[in-house]
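Summary: Need help interpreting a holo structure output

Steps to reproduce:
1. Submit the protein chain below together with the SMILES for nicotinamide-adenine-dinucleotide.
2. Request a joint structure prediction with the ligand placed.
3. Inspect the structure token block that comes back.

Expected: a single structure record containing both the chain and the bound molecule.
Actual: see attached output.

Input attached:
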Amino acid sequence: MVQEIFPLRTDLPHVCYGLHMTDSGVETSIETAELSGRLVMIGCGSIGQAVLPLLRRHILLPTEGITVLSADERGRGIARDAGARFVHCYLKPGDYHRQLAKYVNAGDMVLNLSVDVSSLDLVEWCADRGTLYVDTSIEPWPGVFDNPMLSMRERTNFVTRERMLRLGRRLGRDSPTAVVDHGANPGLVSHLVKQALLNLRADLLPDRAVPQSATEWATLARDLGITLIQVSERDTQAADRPKRPGEFVNTWSIDGFVDELMQPSELSLGTAEPGRPAGSHWHRDGSGSIYLRRPGGGTYARSWLPSLGGFQGLLMTHDEVFSIADHLSLRNERGFAYRPTVMFVYHPCDDAMLSALELEGRGWQMQPTKRVLTAELVTGIDELGVLLAGHTRNAYWYGSQLHIDEARRHVPHANATSLQVAAGALAAAVWAIRNPRRGVVEADDLDYDQCLDAARPYLGPMTGAYTDWTPLQGRGQLFDEDLEPDHPWELRNVRARQWRA
Ligand SMILES: NC(=O)c1ccc[n+]([C@@H]2O[C@H](COP(=O)([O-])OP(=O)(O)OC[C@H]3O[C@@H](n4cnc5c(N)ncnc54)[C@H](O)[C@@H]3O)[C@@H](O)[C@H]2O)c1
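--- attached output ---
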């Protein structure tokens, strides 16, 4: 039974605006929202620590308004500095509800920034309790993504996300809002796709009205001629002390990243593709999404971004490859009339790339030491955007180029990666407060413009760029490759050489 919650308080402005000092010293308005209950944050790792100062800045809370529940001591000092109460607490499948009931009441918000705490169980518990919920990744309890006893498909994101969507249908559209999967990617990238579509519309279809529904967004994508959307990310942040043998290094959760490396690669396959690649399986008939019998950590694809041009990254599973494709699909009685291919191509920081290579070489036995890079970073940006390809101008990238120095100016203990994700979590929290009874929603269901407004102060330069690069560039000269020269953005060309399509 879902409780009645969130009567609109008429004595307080539900949404208001604050001021924010940009790098150039100009004051701009920032978006704030008022939560009448408390905010309970689960997990205080790289993302939790980065978001705490933003929550303080943007979310008006009662005194003593933030409680942090975390299974380790990281971030205790940062929580204290943000005025939050820090509770060392390990949530387990059997008794998470007893633990949470001590701290969470109707009208509160749970911000789940942990790894290995089930989003599915927490969303259901929060709906029953009358509590808002936000996370940046749909997490299962431990023992799923790396469990050899499970089938390969059971270890996919598709299955985990489907369980969440099914729960959302059961709880109903007017249950307490639970925004799932809303960090940077998944999360903000869905809004970047919409902004990129609008930018392309201005150049290529200037008479077309701004879309108001999912069908209109999909129609715009189809009429622009977009066949492929890549979430395209290159992290160039580097520390003064390089990775050592036997050490796993990353700019965000090593546990979370290793799960993704060991999961099968997944992507959504569009209507422009001639067929399903060899070695892949449909998730189910008519799903338009596939998994490869290969680990994300050992599967490579090509993409492009403005600072470095063409690059090769990991073809990793991520929920946005399903949600963006589903949102932009047009269906008829025979199935898909239009669907873009959507994939995530990720080059993590160089030390993380080497760590992934070493991990696979160790037969997926975790390295004995781990290091998340924060204070020791000396250079680099996290360049995260979306590449929309196949149209008459070839390809267009739109996204954030956040430098480590700028990230630190906003939040001294953050890095560019954690701040981008924190900005996404903040935008979701603000949206959930403004829209408290919308049930289980993903980024593609949210107001893209409001979310970008909330996150933008923390994303650094936002860049849009056309390119004439295609994945055919430099291919087939030194080695024979099975390429498709007439359709440069087909998966056959996008994939790197060692897997067949
Ligand atoms: N959408 C995105 O753009 C994006 C990007 C990066 C990370 N993420 C997600 O954000 C979340 C946090 O990532 P991170 O880098 O901060 O992770 P992290 O590993 O740095 O921190 C995880 C936190 O979870 C806590 N935790 C783990 N098990 C717990 C339990 N049983 N009970 C209570 N607390 C527990 C840990 O104590 C720690 O504080 C993860 O779900 C990750 O996948 C999303």
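--- end attachment ---

Reviewer comment: Residues 42-48, 69-72, 74, 89-91, 113-117, 136-137, 139, 183-187, 252-253, 255-256, 421, 424 surround nicotinamide-adenine-dinucleotide (CB under 6 Å). The chain has 14 helices and 26 strands.
Status: needs-info
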